[in-house]
């Protein structure tokens, strides 16, 4: 029995090293680095005038970037107040980045990510699917602590139209 336990312990002690050899080299997050942090913003568009918070933070030992977001919209003429929550996971793939988005309205969107040459604009463009709308989410850095954003929707075979625009301020690090 002691031999079996010793063999198991030897395997368990060696296993993390084997796992480390299988992991990817460090991920170069520099193209998305300016997004990282906690943000507060306000905007308007299809859902009305609203405000909210979002954050981009690393998770899984820096292997993914997670965006959590919420927006609150007050009651307006004929519309009750409501809240929209979403979560997006950004991950490296094929030398670039991709993302998958989930929200409280049961949407799931898969995005390819493009970064402008100057690094100040990050664009998430949904994968095309026959007969389905496309989505584009754009963040534009206006200073080290401010950004503007836009969410656009394109019905099948139509160009993108703006659904929501906002501006946001990065919160001071705690």
Description:
The protein has one helix at residues 2-22; strands spanning 37-45, 50-59, 64-73, 82-93, 96-103, 108-115, 121-126, 134-143, 146-154, 161-170. Helices cover 12% and strands 53% of the residues. It is mainly beta and 174 residues long. Strands 1-2-3-4-5-6-7-8-9-10 form a ten-stranded antiparallel β-barrel. The protein has a single domain (23-170), classed as Lipocalin (Beta Barrel). Strand 2 and strand 3 (64-73) form a beta hairpin. It has one helix and ten strands; from the N terminus they run αββββββββββ.
Element-level helix/strand string: HEEEEEEEEEE
Distance between the termini: 52 Å
The CATH homologous superfamily name equals: Calycin beta-barrel core domain
Total number of helices: 1
CATH class: Mainly Beta
Task: Break the fold down into its secondary structure elements and pairings.
Elements: H1 2-22, E1 37-45, E2 50-59, E3 64-73, E4 82-93, E5 96-103, E6 108-115, E7 121-126, E8 134-143, E9 146-154, E10 161-170
Summarize the model shown:
This protein is mainly beta and 174 residues long.
Which properties best describe this structure?
174 residues, mainly beta, ten-stranded antiparallel β-barrel, Lipocalin
């Amino acid at each position: 029995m002691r031999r079996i336990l010793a063999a198991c312990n030897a395997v368990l002690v060696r296993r993390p090293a084997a796992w480390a050899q299988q992991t990817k080299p460090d991920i170069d997050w520099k193209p998305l680095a300016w997004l990282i942090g906690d943000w507060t913003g306000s905007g308007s568009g299809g859902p009305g005038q609203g405000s909210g918070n979002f954050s981009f933070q690393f998770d899984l030992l820096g292997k993914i970037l997670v965006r959590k977001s919420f927006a609150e919209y007050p009651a307006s003429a004929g519309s009750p107040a409501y809240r929209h929550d979403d979560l997006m996971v950004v991950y490296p793939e094929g030398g670039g980045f991709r993302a998958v988005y989930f929200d409280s309205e049961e949407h799931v969107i898969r995005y390819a990510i493009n970064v402008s040459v100057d690094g100040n604009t990050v664009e998430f463009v949904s994968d095309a699917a026959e007969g389905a709308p496309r989505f584009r989410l754009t963040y534009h850095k206006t200073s080290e602590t401010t950004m503007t954003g836009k969410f656009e929707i394109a019905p099948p075979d139509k160009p993108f139209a703006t659904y929501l625009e906002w501006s946001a301020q990065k919160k001071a690090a705690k």
